[in-house]
């Protein structure tokens, strides 16, 4: 076979281009063009950043605060923390399953909550304040595509709403985008484009926002009964589309697994997140049900972390059991959920986990972030591997930077190549 291009990688270490199997590029872009609170390690610093931003803008829409990372006061931001800020403020928690609004913001939408906290479906009330303008969609997606390329990502399975879907039509992306649409935004023509991949629905919320369907918590957190979910699946499969179901708590994961088990082979479906997995569930997962998980969530899995705080000792060792999943021969595709975007960030946690049920090897983690993702989207015959006949999608690293497995989190690629074309070259980026 004749190569299209020849590269001198000057000793670079070549990995298959990463496929992020679950991302929200719109929010990755918006957190750049608006306000990103992820890096702040104290609550007071995050609130300060909101205050400073408010001085220069007529409203604040902020993303990615995570109380479990704060050294001073690991509690949610509430409306009273934002007292004295005269501009409307909406700040989304890292997981996107809850947001806090200040008095000014609540007044402008005619809603009031004593603590300013909006969870799950209630967050739609905040839309008038947070919905981007048409141009902002395009700008945010372009920003996020650039970030993806700089992280070695060559393919993204992006979870999109209708407005984001439409914005993609106005963009030329050099990163491969495979779109999953939210069930409520599904439209007649969806599925006719080869990059339209499937339909996402929710069985529950998140552990961080305390909205997961977890045994011992509120059973109302289960957003659909097993029958309702089965009907949803039937409807989606009858249109020849796969189901991507969000399931985090043990109850939700069980409903998802059992339903798919009863209909094995209908489509290549996925269970998204798959965090609390009861004994026996892994035995009923078939080859057409892909576990789509986020290894960066293991950041919360250590002693004293968020999983222990929310769930106690009993789930401490057993959440996100990647080792067990692979040992059962199941497909495990990795993504970031944009929390934050970054394959090496996630691979770092999967390789370095404190607990043996979660810990997998570097090679396994890279495969989950490439080959397994291509299988999930049915593209396993042409992307996701370095092999003759496959598209030349690569993430090139300096070997020195990935040798030390304890520091993978910091590893940045030298180059990203999609279909033989360099889409990112670190040596050409001004530092
Ligand atoms: Zn989800
Ligand atoms: Zn998500």
From TrEMBL:
Domain Amidohydrolase: 6-424
Top-level division of the source organism's lineage: Archaea
Short name of one Pfam family: Amidohydro_3
Single annotated GO MF: hydrolase activity, acting on carbon-nitrogen (but not peptide) bonds
Protein name: Amidohydrolase 3 domain-containing protein
The organism of origin for this protein: Thermoplasma acidophilum (strain ATCC 25905 / DSM 1728 / JCM 9062 / NBRC 15155 / AMRC-C165)
């Amino acid at each position: 076979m004749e190569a299209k291009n020849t590269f001198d990688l000057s000793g670079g270490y070549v990995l298959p281009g990463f496929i992020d199997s679950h991302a929200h590029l719109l929010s990755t872009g918006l957190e750049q063009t608006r306000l990103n609170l992820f890096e702040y390690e104290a609550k007071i610093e995050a609130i300060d950043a909101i205050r400073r931003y408010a001085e220069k803008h007529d409203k604040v829409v902020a993303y990615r605060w995570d109380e479990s990372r704060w050294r001073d006061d690991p509690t949610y931001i509430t409306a009273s923390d934002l007292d004295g800020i005269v501009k409307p403020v909406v700040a989304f928690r890292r997981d996107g399953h809850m947001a806090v609004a200040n008095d000014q913001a609540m007044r402008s939408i005619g809603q009031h909550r004593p603590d300013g906290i909006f969870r799950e479906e209630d967050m739609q009330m905040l839309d008038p304040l947070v919905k981007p303008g048409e141009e902002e969609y395009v700008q945010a997606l372009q920003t996020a595509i650039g970030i993806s390329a700089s992280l070695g990502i060559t393919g993204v399975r992006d979870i999109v709403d209708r407005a984001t879907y439409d914005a993609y039509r106005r963009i030329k992306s050099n990163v491969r985008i495979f779109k999953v649409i939210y069930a409520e935004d599904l439209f007649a023509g969806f599925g006719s484009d080869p990059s339209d991949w499937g339909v996402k629905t929710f069985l529950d919320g998140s552990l961080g926002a305390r909205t997961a369907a977890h045994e011992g918590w509120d059973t109302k957190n289960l957003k659909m009964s097993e029958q309702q979910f089965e009907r949803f699946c039937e409807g989606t499969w009858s249109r020849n589309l796969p189901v991507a179901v969000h399931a985090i708590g043990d109850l939700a994961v069980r409903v998802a697994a059992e339903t798919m088990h009863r209909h094995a082979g209908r489509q290549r479906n996925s269970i998204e997140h798959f965090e609390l997995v009861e004994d026996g569930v892994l035995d009923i997962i078939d080859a057409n049900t892909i576990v789509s998980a986020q290894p960066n969530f293991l950041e919360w899995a250590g002693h004293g972390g968020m999983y222990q705080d929310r769930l106690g000792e009993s789930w401490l060792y057993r959440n996100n059991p990647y080792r067990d999943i692979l040992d059962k021969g199941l497909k495990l595709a990795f993504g970031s959920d944009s929390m934050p975007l970054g394959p090496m960030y996630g691979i770092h946690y999967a390789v370095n986990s404190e607990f043996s049920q979660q810990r997998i090897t570097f090679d396994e983690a890279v495969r989950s972030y490439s080959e397994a993702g291509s299988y999930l989207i049915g593209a396993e015959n042409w992307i996701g591997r370095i092999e003759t006949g496959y598209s030349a999608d690569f993430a090139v690293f300096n070997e020195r930077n990935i040798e030390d497995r304890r520091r993978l989190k910091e590893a940045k690629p030298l180059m990203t190549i999609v279909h033989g074309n360099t889409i990112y070259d670190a040596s050409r980026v001004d530092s």
